[in-house]
């Protein structure tokens, strides 16, 4: 029996996307014939599957072989496996399953494998070719030296797989439900979260007077729309105003302006490595969850701790944490730099159960690094750094309108009559707001369309635009249509000229 360079308590982990199951299974059979200790996870669906990959697969791996394809690179599951292997200083052997003339790794996968020579498994249909590549893989596994001891001791200080599971959860929560249609969603990267630094002294005095006078919600809402002196700030720069080692920031925002989306966005950006890599963990806590149902009263002399909050809010209720996991969590929690995102102070401050007030006021709000969100008039916190979510800026609105307009223009010029008709109907609903010259001419061209539904929809859209459509170029176009061979086009042009009325007559003169 041949001996490998793999220690008795270690294995070779195979990291692959499920679309590569067939070829990887073939490679596995060859490696098993050589008594190679293998570990692979065929289930890649749940968080528990990922935990198994990290806690068992990566942690006990002497070598991690990654089987690279475009689907592998797109997989959040595979990305976390390999990035965690790199973080734990595991030996990585890349295996290419795709022709490099067609595809090469990019983004995160390239950054991990760019200095490593991959084994080319893309064309192994012949048994001899497969055998040759497997031998090369075995040689690479046995030939690589073990990880130096000084690196291993450093690895022990790195974040655990439990923190990686939380990061994975944030990455999966990367979309926002459409407000009008919950069945639809859009990427959180497309949300507009505009922040401003607030000059607070005068503002705080006004707030105190309003709170003390018990004004109605209508007046409070009006107050929350009043803008004091503010300076725009990017999300990644919100800690620049913090003057000491403590990073405590209070973020205001009107009801519905996007405070929760702001917290979700921060967690996602941290998870994908775009902001604040100095934090080992970001913990997002919806403060409205501090209820008696979720946190029932404990026996006398015992209280909830921050780690209880972390366990309950960041791990799913059906996710099993073993005794080893609990110990690991405790150690990592106390040895890590953690940022707390405390969302919705205004929603809980008047309703928090008495026995949870200490958890809120003396623990969560006393953490050295936290961001707390609240509506302004419900606030009684005193943070030296205060920001405000201001909603849409003029640039956001302009860009969004231009994007929508371009979609409609593309639709009315589509080869499909159904899509052309739908595009016209969408423009009809928006009326004069979409009455640009390009839209008007596009709709007029459709008055002579071969499809009856398209012609009717185009006419309706132009009618709804009224005098806004009466540009010189549009009037000339309509006059030309009066001589068109198509009866519908002639009649529509006549009716539209009547709708445009006086303005059309003026332009013609």
TrEMBL record:
Highest taxon of source: Eukaryota
Pfam families per the UniProt record, alphabetical: HEAT_2, NACHT, TIR_2
Organism of this sequence: Adineta steineri
Gene3D superfamilies: Leucine-rich Repeat Variant, P-loop containing nucleotide triphosphate hydrolases, Toll/interleukin-1 receptor homology (TIR) domain
Protein name: NACHT domain-containing protein
Signal peptide range in chain numbering: none
Domain NACHT: 247-375
GO biological process: signal transduction
């Amino acid at each position: 029996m041949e001996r490998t360079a793999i220690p008795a308590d270690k294995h070779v982990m195979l990291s692959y996307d499920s679309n590569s199951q067939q070829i990887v299974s073939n490679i596995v059979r060859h490696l098993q014939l050589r008594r190679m200790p293998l570990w692979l996870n065929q289930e890649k669906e749940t968080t528990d599957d990922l935990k198994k990959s990290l806690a068992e697969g990566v942690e006990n791996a002497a070598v991690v072989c990654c089987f690279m394809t475009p689907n592998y690179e797109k997989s959040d599951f595979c990305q976390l496996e390999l990035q965690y292997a790199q973080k734990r200083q595991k030996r990585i052997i890349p295996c290419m399953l795709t022709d490099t003339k067609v595809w090469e790794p990019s983004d995160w996968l390239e950054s991990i494998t760019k200095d490593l020579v991959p084994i080319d498994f893309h064309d192994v249909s012949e048994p001899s070719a497969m055998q040759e590549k497997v031998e090369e893989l075995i040689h690479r596994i046995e030939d690589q030296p073990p990880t130096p001891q000084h690196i291993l001791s450093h690895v022990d200080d790195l974040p655990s797989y439990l923190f990686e599971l939380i990061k994975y959860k944030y990455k999966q929560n990367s979309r926002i439900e459409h407000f009008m249609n919950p069945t639809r969603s859009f990427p959180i990267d497309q949300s507009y979260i505009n922040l401003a630094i607030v000059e607070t002294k005068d503002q705080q005095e006004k707030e105190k007077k309003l709170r003390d006078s018990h004004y109605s919600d209508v007046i409070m809402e009006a107050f929350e729309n009043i803008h004091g002196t503010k300076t725009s700030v990017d999300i990644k720069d919100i800690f620049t105003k913090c003057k000491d080692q403590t990073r405590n920031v209070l973020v205001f925002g009107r009801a519905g302006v996007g405070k929760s989306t702001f917290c979700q966005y921060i967690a996602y950006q941290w998870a994908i490595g775009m902001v604040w890599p100095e934090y080992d963990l970001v913990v997002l806590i919806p403060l409205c969850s501090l209820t008696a149902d979720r946190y029932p009263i404990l026996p006398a002399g015992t209280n909830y701790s921050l780690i209880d909050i972390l366990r309950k809010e960041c791990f799913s209720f059906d996710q099993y944490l073993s005794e080893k996991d609990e110990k690991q969590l405790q150690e990592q929690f106390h040895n890590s730099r953690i940022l707390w995102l405390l969302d919705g102070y205004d929603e809980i401050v008047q309703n928090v159960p008495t026995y949870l007030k200490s958890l809120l006021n003396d623990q969560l709000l006393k953490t050295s690094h936290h961001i707390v969100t609240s509506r302004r008039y419900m606030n009684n916190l005193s943070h030296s750094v205060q920001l405000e979510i201001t909603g849409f800026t003029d640039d956001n609105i302009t860009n969004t309108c231009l994007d929508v307009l371009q979609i409609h223009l593309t639709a009315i010029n589509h080869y499909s009559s159904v899509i052309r008709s739908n595009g016209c109907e969408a423009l009809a609903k928006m009326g004069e707001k979409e009455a640009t010259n390009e839209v008007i001419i596009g709709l007029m061209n459709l008055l002579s369309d071969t499809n009856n539904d398209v012609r009717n929809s185009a006419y309706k859209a132009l009618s709804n635009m009224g005098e806004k459509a009466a540009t010189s170029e549009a009037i000339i176009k309509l006059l030309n249509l009066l001589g068109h061979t198509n009866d519908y086009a002639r009649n529509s042009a006549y009716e539209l000229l009547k709708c445009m009325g006086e303005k059309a007559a003026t332009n013609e003169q």
